[in-house]
Amino acid sequence: MSRLHLLILWVLALGAGIYYFNSKDVPDSINTKADLDIGSNLVPGDLVETVDSFTVKSDDGEVTLKKLEKEWVVADKADFPASNDSVSRVFDALRNAKVAQSVVASDEYYDRFELDPETGDGEKPTVITLRKNGKETTSVYLGKTRESTGGTSGSAGRFVRLSNDDSGVYVVQEGFGFLNTNSENWINKALTPLEEGVVKMEVSAPNDDTFKPWVVSRATVQDDLIIEGLEEKEETKTNETATLKNIFAGATFMELVSEEDYKERANEKATRQLKATDSAGSTFLITVTPEKEKEEEKEDKDSGDPAKPAAAPSVNYLVSIEILNGPTKPEPLGENPSVQEKAVYAERVNNLADVSASVNRMRRAYEGRYFLVSKASIGSLTKNRGEFIQPKKEKKKPVTVATPPIAVPTPGTNKPNSPPPLITRPKDGDKEKPKIEAVTPPIQVPPIPKKPEAKDELGIGDAPDPVEKPKVGEDQEKE
Predict the structure, then answer these.
(1) CB distance 29 to 105 below 8 Å
(2) How many alpha carbons lie under 13 Å from residue 304 in its C-beta half-sphere?
């Protein structure tokens, strides 16, 4: 073989080697670095801020949310308003997801990190697909959790990859464990008609002739609701009607119910209808229908076991809302309005546009839908008229306590510069009180016996008489 042939073979071998190492079939482990550096944002911040639609997909299902007129809605629930907290949590997690470690790997290694959506063996990743103006921008694949190696059990991050980055796999500290694909968990479950405060409520039962309709009303939201059409000896139980003032304040629903489910579950014979007007002039027609009694509850009731007390049925209600009229312009003020009337009028005028927008959102969200609501939220609407009425209490006359008049000296009766009247003591005080003396009885001392006569030493004459000692008793008496 000539040197020329040998040179040609070397050139061909070198070209084949270069082609081989640059081919896509070779693992990327020969690369030295991934595209994103440690500490970099997984998703650019400007992209997160401009996203107008995203989808979350996993083995359990798929849910899509989109922005509609500056409001996030759940597309899988006929564009029902989404929970702002749930949407914000996704974007906050994407903003805070920073690269903690990079692993150079090609697609043939994705299955090892549970990042291959087409794998048939291992766990498939959860995928967040971000869109802008209807076009897909990127997809974030969430793989297996990276276990901690620091001696304590727990998560040390999660393996992720990007659809537009095939340079490697990344580890981020954000776990995204809150994600799910159940559309019921993404909707806003607040039920807030009459948020401006109800001023009139008319309750009727279209399918029950035995029900007596009742109406409550008040002039302003600061007043008590009063039953209309009271007889002379009747009055309103204001403590009962107080529960109607904020009947939907803080109310939530448990489930969105389809029309087919409503027809199957509703006990329409016991339906109640509420026509309510709020302080902004909006009028709502709210229908409240209890659920049918479940079969297992019927069996427990029919068993008749005296040893087993019958449990109270857990009644839930199916609610539908129709908006009959939006907010109305406030009536012009009369002559000499009060300061409070001026303030209320100015507030209604200034808030009219915002209230109108809120009512329009309610119309899109509520009309044509059925909501499953607990009895605790709207139980007051199911009461009868008599439960809000009591016999009028007679007003008792006020009891007065009369104090006898106190004699006051008439001015001018006393002489000038005369001393004030003396305080006289009772007559018994004039008597002298007996003195108290302590007397000690005399002490009796026995007499000293007399000695026989004695003579002097010489035997002449009598001995001198002894000196007499005074008696103790006598001295004491003299003292």
Answers:
(1) yes
(2) 1
Question: How far apart are the C-alpha atoms of 23 and 108, rounded to whole Å?
Answer: 14
DSSP category for residue 411: T
DSSP state for residue 242 in the 8-state scheme: G
Tokens 């012009």 correspond to 332
Residue 416, judged by CB atoms within 10 A of its CB (0-12, 13-18, 19+), counts as exposed
Separation of alpha carbons 465 and 446, rounded Å: 20
Which two structure tokens, joined as six digits, stand for 429? 């005080």
Question: What is the Cα–Cα distance from 48 to 246, expressed in whole angstroms?
Answer: 39
End-to-end CA distance of the chain: 171
Phi, psi values for residue 237, rounded to 5°: -80, 95
Helical spans, DSSP H, in 283-385: 295-303, 339-366, 375-378
pLDDT tens digits, one per residue of 348-375: 889 899 999 999 999 999 999 999 999 8
**pLDDT tens by residue, 434-453:** 566 656 666 666 666 665 55
Cα gap 382→204, rounded to integer Å: 10
The CB density around residue 152, as the number of other CB atoms within 10 Å, is 7
Query: Residues of the chain whose pLDDT is less than 50?
Result: 20-31, 311, 454-460, 462-463, 467, 469, 472-479
Q: If we measure between CA atoms, which residue out of 412, 406, 288, 363 comes closest to residue 69?
A: 363
Distance of alpha carbon 42 from alpha carbon 162, whole angstroms: 8
Q: Report residue 445: phi and psi, to 5°.
A: -105, 125
Helix H, strand E, coil C: the string for 150-169 is: CCCCCEEEEEEEECCEEEEE
Q: What are phi and psi of 36, to 5 degrees?
A: -95, 135
Total Cβ atoms within 10 A of residue 253: 22
Is there a contact between 269 and 300 (Cβ–Cβ < 8 Å)? no
Tokens linked to 335: 């002559």
Token output for 194: 């009459």
Half-sphere exposure of 202 (CA within 13 A, CB side): 7
What is the pTM assigned to this prediction? 0.68
Contact indicator for 137, 51 with CB cutoff of 8 Å: yes
Nearest alpha carbon to residue 377 among 439, 304, 319, 435: 319
SS3 113: helix
Q: Are 239 and 226 in contact (CB under 8 A)?
A: no
Q: Which two tokens stand for residue 65?
A: 């949310």
- Residue 351, judged by CB atoms within 10 A of its CB (0-12, 13-18, 19+), counts as middle
